[in-house]
Write a structure and sequence with these properties.
heterodimer; A: about 240 residues; alpha/beta; Rossmann fold; six-stranded mixed sheet; four-stranded antiparallel sheet; 10 strands; B: about 375 residues; mainly alpha; two-stranded antiparallel sheet; about 70% helix
């Protein structure tokens, strides 16, 4: 297990009077795999935005180890070892699949280093290994624009892996995937958790069950329930707002 | 059967083809000053006018390359690159003014004519050093680069992008134009600088000087093309393309988008400054009109016509649109702006990838 603890305490985000997050508290231990579920508008994506610096909380504490994330911009937070996969897969269409991974690969991020960057054997091997892992080895030299939706999801997961973050935030990773791909993703996330912390936001309860992790249920921007999938599925409050409908 | 099985004729990689075509085009251009030496009656003779005007286009091509680098590769649309070009031009103009020495109308040993006329007693401090050519060239790079850095830093840091950034750059060049029109700026007011005598000991307005300046411009164009081409192939170039297509995603990968945009914007301003510095001795005049917002817009149209996604496209656009302009304005100058506008609309609608799109076939 490696990496610091993610710690949210009393986090609120207010947009024009609308409380997207309402005093949310959450602790993710190093190496933990955590699933976050909740109905639409529960604040799942806002929570990710707060952690990655896209949105500043109106109140509350967000810490990653010793770092106060509310004071850092997106790039700094990413460099602390927090990687994010978006709900809508965003890859760089004009670049090849391999180049997409090369940009994500952990390496100095300043313009000068990028100008002088040479793709060394070690980096080549890393990229080849990830290409294998995500099943895109045959398409390495094709532009990302021609990938299917599922393949784009995989490429983005690959970009996360090669970034080698301590904490992965994964927003709806299996949207648009086949059942087989969904299983593969669950297995992959289970395996990489342990070495690092993983937070998965997902609608698909079967997938969450396959993850076999602790589950956090959000509702109206606040924590509703927390525990194993069976515990939360039997929690009457959860049934009322989410599952029972 | 054997026909079907036969391997396809060895195809020249398109990249190599483009490189060859580019080198050939530059080679042909390099012949112009030599053909200028032929007697006027000769079939291949090229007039002084042609050499001068082509030299001017080469400078424009370098400006276009700078715009193409920032716009096509990194998605930064500057509508104020004419300002960087003009600042480079003014830096060289100051050097040329200093070289006039006592040959001015008023015969003052140090002060340019306009300063004598305006009652200056001594050279303003910011004119010091411009008697040295290397200093003037350094300033032709440094001043546009610094201005681009300041404007870029303030804008990119505040995440001003797209059309809002374009408007800021447009305002920048307009403000500079107004400033340079003022006599008390010490840059000759609305007359600017002209009546240059020599550069590096060569009297200007001779065949030899024109040829030398022409080759210097060609060298600058070739060098800038190679530099930009190299840049676009590095990881830096890939990050710029990524910034162009999905800026916020790049941030979440841990890259400081501001730093990358600044790098390319400053470099592109420096190229524009150098182009302006060579332009001024070729045309023999620099005045605040060079800061006019329309100049910057026209330069962006060159790039759009040529094809902003490729560096060669920017260069091609600068040559072709300016060739059209020279031809059209020789008999119907009033039509030019209509033609330019029409051209821009036509290219946007019919050739979104510009002229280079014609050569790229149907691949994406």
């Amino acid at each position: 297990m490696k990496g610091p603890t993610l710690y949210l305490d009393g986090v609120s985000v207010v947009f024009d009077g609308f409380r997207a997050l309402n005093s949310l508290s959450l602790v993710v231990d190093p190496g933990e795999l955590r699933a976050v579920i909740g109905p639409n508008g529960a604040g799942k994506t806002t929570m990710m935005d707060v952690i990655t610096g896209k949105t500043r909380p109106t109140a509350g504490t967000v810490r990653f180890g010793d770092h106060d994330l509310t004071r850092l911009d997106e790039a700094r937070i990413a460099n602390l070892g927090i990687g994010r996969k978006f709900q809508k897969p965003t890859v760089f269409d004009a670049l090849t699949v391999a180049r997409n991974l090369e940009l994500a690969l952990k390496a100095p991020r300043d313009p000068w280093s990028c100008l002088r960057w040479v793709l060394a054997d070690e980096a080549r091997r890393r990229i080849a290994a990830v290409l294998e892992e995500i099943g895109l080895a045959a398409r390495a030299d094709e532009p990302a624009a021609i990938l299917s939706h599922g393949q784009r999801q995989w490429l983005e997961i690959g970009m996360l892996l090669i970034q080698d973050p301590d904490l992965l935030l994964v927003d709806e990773p299996v949207a648009g995937m086949t059942d087989q791909e969904t299983e593969h993703t669950a297995a992959l996330l289970r395996r990489i958790a342990g070495e690092r912390s993983v937070v998965v936001v997902e609608h698909d309860l079967e997938f969450v069950r396959a993850l076999g992790s602790k589950v956090t249920v959000l509702h109206e921007g606040a924590l509703l329930s927390e525990g194993s999938i069976d515990t939360v599925q039997n929690d009457p409050r959860v049934i009322e707002v989410y599952l029972g409908r | 059967m054997s026909d079907l099985a036969a391997p396809a004729a060895p195809r020249v990689p398109p990249r190599l083809l483009a490189l060859g075509a580019g080198a050939a085009a530059l080679g042909l251009l390099a012949l112009l000053p030599l053909l200028n030496l032929l007697p006027a009656g000769s079939a291949l003779a090229v007039s002084d006018f042609t050499v001068a005007v082509t030299g001017k286009w080469i400078c424009y091509a370098v400006l276009a390359l700078g715009i193409g680098l920032a716009w096509g590769q990194a998605g930064i649309l500057s509508l104020g690159h004419g300002a960087f070009f003009a600042l480079g031009g003014y830096a060289m103009g100051m050097h040329l003014m200093r070289l006039i020495g006592p040959r001015g109308v008023y015969g003052h040993p140090v002060l340019p004519d306009f300063m004598v006329f305006l009652g200056y007693r001594e050279l303003p401090w910011y004119w010091l050093g411009f008697e040295h050519l290397p200093y003037a060239i350094l300033m032709a790079m440094l001043v546009p680069g610094l201005l681009a850095f300041v404007v870029g830093y303030l804008s990119f840091r505040s995440r001003i992008t797209g059309v809002y950034f374009s408007i800021i750059t447009q305002a920048m060049t307009y403000a500079l134009m107004l400033a340079f029109f003022r006599n008390d700026m010490g840059f000759g007011g609305n007359n600017g600088f002209t009546d240059f005598k020599e550069l590096l000991g060569m009297p200007l307005n001779t065949r030899g000087a024109r040829a030398a300046l022409f080759y210097a411009a060609l060298l600058l164009l070739g060098g800038s093309l190679l530099l930009c081409r190299h840049l676009t192939r590095t990881k830096l170039g890939a990050v710029l393309v990524a910034v162009r297509d999905a800026e916020s995603r790049v941030r979440f990968l841990g890259y400081s988008v501001t730093a990358f945009k600044l790098t390319v914007f400053v470099l592109s301003a420096v190229l524009a400054g150098l182009a302006g510095a060579l332009y001024v001795p070729l045309v023999g005049i620099i005045n605040p009109g060079e800061f006019a917002p329309t100049n910057s817009i026209e330069a962006v149209i060159w790039v759009a016509v040529g094809g902003r996604a490729s560096l060669v496209g920017a260069v091609l656009g600068a040559f072709s649109v300016n060739a059209l302009k020279t031809w059209l304005t020789s008999f119907a100058p009033d039509l030019w702006l209509f033609a330019l506008g029409g051209l821009f609309v036509a290219v946007t609608v019919l050739l979104p990838r510009g002229l280079v799109g014609l050569f790229q076939g149907r691949t994406r």
